[in-house]
Amino acid sequence: MATAFAKPENALKRAEELLNVGQKQEAWDTLHRLITSRRYRAWTKTLERIMFKYIELCVEMRKGAKDGLNQYRLMCQQVNVSSLEEVIKHFMHLSTERAELARSKAEALEEALDVDDLEADRRPEDLMLSYVSGQKEKDRSDRELVTPWFKFLWETYRTVLEILRNNSKLEALYAMTAHRAFQFCKLYKRTTEFRRLCDIIRNHLANLIKYRDQRDRPDLSAPESQQLYLDTRFEQLKIATDLELWQEAFRSVEDIHGLMCMVKKQPKPSLLVVYYAKLTEIFWKSSGHLYHAYAWSKLFSLQKSFNKNLSQKDLQLIASSFVLAALSVPPYDHVHGASHLELENEKERNLRMANLIGFSLDPKLEGREVLSRSSLLAELVSKGVLTCVTQEVKDLFHLLEQDFLPLDLCSKVQPLLTKISKVGGKLSSASSLPEVQLSRYVPALEKLASLRFLQQVSQVYQTIKIENLTKMLPFFNFSEMEKISGEAIKHNLFSLKIDHREGSVIFGKLGLESDGLRDQLVIFAESLNKSRDMIYPPATKASKLGEMLPSLAETVEKEHKRLLARKSIIEKRKEEQERLLLDMEREEESKRLKQQKLTEEAEQKRLAAEFEQRKNQRILKEIEERELEEAQALLQEAEKRSKKKGKKPVIEGEKVTKQTLMELALTEQLRERQEMEKKLQKLAKTMDYLERAKREESAPLIEAAFQKRLVQEKVQHEHEQQQEIELSRQRHDGDLKEKNRLSRMLEYKMKFQESVLNHRRAEYERLRAEREERMSHILQQRRQEREMKRKMLFYMKSEEERLQKLHEEEEARKREEAERRKKEEAERRAKLDEIAEKQRQRERELEERERMRREAILGKSNDVPPKTVTVPSDSGTTVAPTATGTDTAAPATAPSKYVPRFRRSENSGQPAAPESDRWGSNRSDDRSRPGDRWRADDRPPSFGSGSRSSWSSSRR
């Protein structure tokens, strides 16, 4: 439950009481509640002491102090900012001190564990833990002791930077905190925290630029603020390069360039030297040799112009570095044959890098034409840099850029590179520059020498053996030379082909479109023309005119046609121009109408805006009148208070606003508070005087009491010492008597001890023998179990293989049986289909015979009219008339309906006479038999029914 204190002194006293009894958490809670309470908003000296105690507890308990510092900042911002500065410095000092103490403890622990015999001082469980965890003692000690305090120190820096980011009065403390955080990251190699710190500072500056109307924000236009921010960024750049975080270093360079553009003031030359020196390192690490050389150009100009203490040796070393950096740039254009998008990206990149280096380029032009190797070499000559370099560098420049020595180039370059690689060292008169070593340019110069050698050889030779080429090129073997030449061919430096079969190198494209061959052919043609003119002089002018006369008529005709065509073209152009003029008039008319419409809309908007403005003015006037009334009321109240206190009126004048009165009231409150503070200080001073007087009076009395007590304690000490001596003598005499009394039992004690030891030794031997026997039995049993398991596994594997083989044989048998069944089924179905086809053929023949017989019967019945005979029958039906010339009578159902013969024979109950077929046989109809297997129906059987009947009959 929160306890409310009437005074802050009570809270501080309560916290100290809790600390005396070891309750740190309760003391911290007490102070935290007091600091974050809204009740205490005015700053006092007591609150400063409370804040110091609160900070100490936070550091000791590793708790965050962000909330408390934020509240204290609100208290001190307008009254006493220096108090906040002291508290923050104390906070960082304690955090840094505890982190260093933890680190020293970890190092001491590591030294204590650094012994020769690791197994002598370590327990077995420690060794097992180290083997399992795979960590060293230093890693574990760092994780347990150092890492928590490093985390707390990092959080301290972040908290302080967050609190001071918008405070214009503590900009120096903000910069100091950033520098200390940078040094922390550098000292302990904290790369991740360094990146986060750079992002934090970058975001703080972006927010300052974005929100310009914040209260108490730093003024970036002030020279002091600009210098602090630039110093912070330069420190960030130095630490980034020391930690080899090149991407973060490049971002730091961009931050510095943005600040310099914002300030619009040239920084000091010393800072610019650091800026370009770091740029040289960044561009060299990123293989940006062109920008590296331009950065060296800026460094050379700055050192030569502003460094008055620069010695001739240091200037020579800087100039040599500049020349070698320029020579290290590849001698071809990297964007040759690139796409439009790549060209735009390269242009944008050149603009960006040129701005960082300090060159101003026109964005409408091609940036690569300005930042190029040729312009850089021209700058070397124009500035007279070659006059400052060493003789080896000057000779190397002439060999690689001016001389034409295809056979001796590499042999002359190699000793120069050997001498150059030994040159370098620290500059004595330019301390801000890094250590210059010319040896790092040697690989790039060897590559350049190889390219120049191949380029010059390609102009002299058309074909050369690979052996001779490798002898003349000592820097690289042939595979590396092939890789280098491939890159150069890609960028159109020269052209060559390698024939590995013949072991030769062929220079040039060997085509008619080759530049070298085309030039040679042109020169050869010009020489031939000159020779022909000398041998056969040209004809005179008269002869030329005579030659031209026969073709004059044709020329006139062609000219006449050309003039007619020109006239038609002119007419078409006139028509096109008139059409364009009409289109332009129509377009202008549409634009005029559109502009008129826009003007009308703008007029309507203006009228609406004026109406809205008048409305807002009326509202503002009403608000001002209301505020004036409130101001008058406040003025009357202020006058009443001033009359009661016997003072003059608060303000005199005709026009008084509410804002003025509020400012006056705030001023009055501040004045009363200051008077109260003065009274409190006077009271504290009086109390200090009274306390000093009381202590001066009580000092002699305390000293006398102290001397008296010393005499009493001395007498008491001597008496107690005498008593202790007597007691010691009595105890010694008693111990001697007891020893003499027990000495007679010493022999029995030894015998008993020996018997106990013998018994325990025998028991131990027995238990050891039993254990060895048990272990041998267990080993034998396990050996048998392994043997049994191995046999079982072998048996199971054999059985599984046998079952698998049987299963495969069964599967094969089943497949063969299924195939045989399918084959038999197919044969049976083929036979059934054949029988069915024969049956259908037989039915068709029978139907054809029946049709012919019916036609014959119908023909006879038409010739002789039938006689109607009534025959009694069982069914009571009428018998049809019989045909003339036959003895067989057939029943008839009706006089006009035809009845087949087999129907007539069945109805009459008499056998039908056999009918002779067209072949002359007297064979009777098969279907008239009662036991026939075919159905005797007057309808022809369908396909399905016939098939089923044939199949069923074949099965029977």
Automatic annotation (TrEMBL):
Superkingdom to which the source organism belongs: Eukaryota
Protein name: Uncharacterized protein
